[in-house]
Amino acid sequence: MTTRSHDRVDVPGETVDTTPRADPLQPLLKRNATSSGGESYVHSAFLVDAHDQAWFTVSNREQGRQYRVKRAASCLLRPEPGDKVLVSGDAAGGLYIIAVLEQHASGHSTVQVDGVLAISAEALSLRGTQRLELEADALTIKAAAGAVEATDWDVHSRHYTLTTVELDVAALTSKYTGEQRETHYQSVTETTRRSTRYVTGTDTVKAINLDYAADFVARLSGDTTLINGETVVKADGKQILVG
């Protein structure tokens, strides 16, 4: 038997290759060191130390690591200082907070996105056990039909405009208070069982034709009462009493 070193062994009838082969696991075990603590890939829990408008500073005190990371677009819950977050990524592609694992201040959460957020669903329900608050520079609500049910409903506005084709208002007690009121209608019809009006100043009515009728008693009285008719003044009745 003749042996040729470093490449193969000749055996009668066959040839055995003895060239050292590369381990296929070696490329998977090698990781290039980076400036981010020596790892090429990070997927671990960190604590949020601070954050500014776009960046978060996270640290792992047990391992002595600290990174400057961004929040992933899918992480809608805004991390706050003291929260435990999951950081994933690498130095080449960037490190991102992909989830908030634990909140330091429980009971208060903020969902925040950059830009415009659109939520689409066949049915959408927003429920606040104690309070539901909407705050915006402009609010627009569009619906084919709407309904509001509330025990108490208050509307405070500097300027309020209501435009509708038909308006129905039903109330047991209605009260209007203001400094000035102006109404413009093509036609007005009022039906009341009893009406009382008290004017502290002057009550002025101007009309082309004025018609007052009473089924029983019509009374016009004043300290000084003037009835003027430019053409005709007529008093008609079965009895006319003066004085």
Overall mean pLDDT score? 83
How large, in whole angstroms, is the Cα Rg?
43 Å
**What is the topology, as strand order, of the major beta sheet?**
4-5-6-8-7
Q: Low-confidence stretches at least 5 residues in length (pLDDT < 50)?
A: 1-6, 25-37
* Spatial separation of the terminal alpha carbons: 160 Å
Helical content stands at: under 10%
* Beta-strand content estimate: 15-25%
> For this structure, what is the CATH homologous superfamily of the domain at 35-102?
Nucleic acid-binding proteins
The CATH topology of the domain at 35-102 comes to: OB fold (Dihydrolipoamide Acetyltransferase, E2P)
| Individual helix count | 1
CATH architecture type of the domain at 35-102: Beta Barrel
Helix and strand run: EEEHEEEEE
CATH class of the domain at 35-102: Mainly Beta
Structural class of the secondary elements? mainly beta
| Total DSSP E strands | 8
Structure description:
It is a single chain. With 243 residues, the chain is mostly beta strands. It has a domain of 68 residues: Nucleic acid-binding proteins (OB fold (Dihydrolipoamide Acetyltransferase, E2P), Beta Barrel). Helix content is 2%, strand content 20%. A hairpin with a 4-residue loop joins strand 4 and strand 5. It starts with a strand and ends in a 141-residue tail after the last strand.
